[in-house]
Design brief:
The structure is a homodimer.
Chain A lengths: L9 H8 L3 H7 L8 H14 L5 H8 L4 E6 L5 H16 L3 E6 L7 H9 L4 E5 L5 H9 L4 E4 L9 E5 L1 H14 L5 E5 L5 H16 L7 E5 L4 H13 L8 E4 L2 H14 L9 E3 L16 E3 L2 H12 L13 E4 L2 E3 L17 H4 L8
Parallel strand pairs in A: 1-2, 1-3, 3-4, 4-5, 5-11, 6-7, 6-8, 8-9
Antiparallel strand pairs in A: 10-12
Helix pairs in contact in A: 1-2, 1-3, 2-3, 8-9, 10-11
Chain A binds a DNA duplex through helix 2 and helix 4.
Chain lengths: ~350, ~350
DNA sequence: GTGAAAGCGCTAACAG
DNA sequence: CTGTTAGCGCTTTCAC
């Protein structure tokens, strides 16, 4: 049987129901004026023919595909697979679907954008990937709203939604300081990405305010991955020349997990006794028993809502706002990879609180 | 600025280039007969106008959207996020994109299919979700190929690609037996899913062949999730009435990880000394230092290739094959959660071998 | 409330 | 090789 043999159209349904084709269209368009009686006739005919409206065809006239492109640069980091899941769910609830575009981590997504454009998507969300200003303006020109999730292009007119990464970096520095650390190490992510840069910057700034010298802060790249951080950690702590850091900040949780495993299983270090560690993101994986990671929570649901609201999918006539970029602040979640300083009263990151804004958004 | 203000069409390009509109169409259609010179003229005009062909419009005539629907029921299991990533990458290489449909784990995906149909996708891949035979035949009727990934509907005409789960279950049983276990426990997944059922069946069958009584095999549901298995493990091993199992089979790796953490961190058990554990899937996460999970590797790249080949996206005229269902066998990856039986020569699951077919498919 | 008719942006014969 | 001409399946005026 050849494909597309019997895909029935609104004309077929119209014929069967004894109405005009436009009546069929109306029957399936919420809010259009049609008598309940005719609508039922149409529905019955449609059911008989297994008719499903062709939304591709309708988008030709409506100029809306109900498809949102999600460009994602690092599916290996669970943080982003949770983000993807959350977006997909929320969008589905509004009758839209996510079209995925994967790009290599750290790669330019300019080429991807070109493909995105072909599909006439209603909006695009870009996460964990680079993008040139030229591309954002191409989207703007065609009236396609684009928002950078957890990323921004300095000096661009593209909107961005992100956690206040610099402030988060400061929070971690603060925690280390309170716990008495004097020597520090960082495992950084994508050196070109603003996310990693900002976290690093905040962290270092806060440390420097307390008189820590930059030379007392070791810095190694971990490629934003578990494996990369695993090796990076080995590199830092094997090096006998340096005085051993007492505190390690991995700029995201998945790297913190990799570092912790390397430290424990390869180097036999105890955490936090021998070394304190912190991450960033607060992915559910970091909350698990072996890690109990102290971290900064990204307010993911808030960020997603903000993204969707900037996209403003419901009102295509609204036009594109000039880029807005309001960082949302995260908060420190205190678990077990930094010793609680004596006499210090920290907000605890116990599970009651932990559920507040994270994970599934349902 | 209102959206869709200036999306230029092939007519605009044609006018600027001084050719007919069909020439523009040809210029962007690989393999169509057009003079190199005119093609260049068209390209130049297109560039000036920022023209990108509207693939939605073209699909109206070609009957191909270059979109493949992926219905996914359990994004929380890393196995499936790896699967998603792999599909997306491979499909992208062929110039196609993945449209995501998330359904609640274990839920019927019948409603999702209805939405899929609207988008006129070229094919659908269904993973970790239930589907009625009625829906598969609806797809068949309209000539949309559908393949069930790691799932099958007994007695259905839908094609399926899966690991030989029953055989895999037997492999685990075999390993436990070789290591001298006498009492067993299982943590199962979605009770309605064939995947969990088959793994359990193979496991139990093999055990029974060796004279193990069904009553010596404890069975608890773990909801296919880390957390579910964490709690399930606690339930099994807290119960003082039962003689404590010596071997625990979690029917997927993510549950094995949850169980291991519960056992170690809550109950203080050592693995494999106090209890041996095995999983299924061979997700990269299970290879990490804290787990070193003995498991059955799903030949994910083979499975993906098989799926794509059944979908046969390149040849829409071919018609849909009557359901085929050829399980691909997985192999046991021996790591550290089952003690290696003395004198037994097992194929080791060291990393050289581990890279053979798994993870990124690049 | 309903039908007729004109497109949406593109591809696919069909002549030339 | 190139232009002309029909549509693809649907939405949307516009009369009635």
């Amino acid at each position: 049987m050849a494909r597309h043999s019997n895909r029935s159209t609104s004309f077929d349904v119209a014929a069967l129901a004894g109405v005009s084709q436009s009546a069929v269209s109306r029957a399936f368009t919420p809010g259009s004026s049609i008598a309940e009686e005719t609508r039922q006739k149409v529905y019955e005919a449609a059911r008989k023919l297994n008719y499903v409206p062709n939304s591709i065809a309708s988008s030709l006239t409506t100029k809306r595909t109900n498809i949102v492109a999600l460009i994602i640069g690092n599916m290996a980091n669970p943080f982003y697979s949770h983000v993807l899941h959350a977006f997909s769910q929320k969008l589905q609830e509004q009758g839209r679907q996510v079209l995925i575009f994967t790009v290599d981590p750290g790669a330019e997504s300019d080429e991807a954008i070109l493909h995105v454009l072909k599909y006439q998507v209603d909006g695009v969300i870009l996460t964990a990937a680079q993008l040139s200003t030229r591309m954002t303006s191409m989207c703007h020109d065609r009236g396609i709203p684009i928002v950078l999730f957890n990323r921004y292009i300095p000096g661009s007119d593209a909107s961005g939604v992100r956690c206040d990464n610099a402030a988060g970096g400061r929070l971690i520095a603060e925690a280390f300081l309170a716990a008495g650390a004097k020597n520090f190490a960082m495992i950084t992510g994508d050196p070109k990405g603003s996310t990693s840069q900002d976290r690093v910057r905040g962290f270092v700034e806060r440390l420097q305010e307390e008189g820590v010298r930059r030379s007392d802060i070791t810095e190694v790249g971990g490629q934003s991955s578990y494996e990369g951080a695993f090796n990076a950690a080995l590199g830092i702590f094997r090096d006998k020349d340096r005085s051993r850091p007492e505190a390690l900040f991995a700029i995201n949780d998945i790297m913190a997990m990799g570092a912790i495993d390397a430290l424990r299983y390869r180097l036999g270090l105890r955490i936090p006794e021998d070394l304190m560690v912190a991450g960033f993101d607060d992915i559910p994986e970091g909350r698990r028993a072996p890690y109990q990671l102290t971290t900064v929570r990204q307010p993911i649901n808030q960020m997603i809502d903000a993204t969707l609201s900037i996209l403003n999918l419901d009102d295509p006539s609204s036009g594109i706002e000039p880029g807005i970029d309001q960082p949302i602040s995260g908060r420190l979640i205190w678990r077990n990879t930094i010793p609680v300083p004596a006499g210090h009263r920290w907000e605890t990151g116990k599970e009651e609180a932990a559920r507040a804004d994270t994970g599934s958004s349902k």
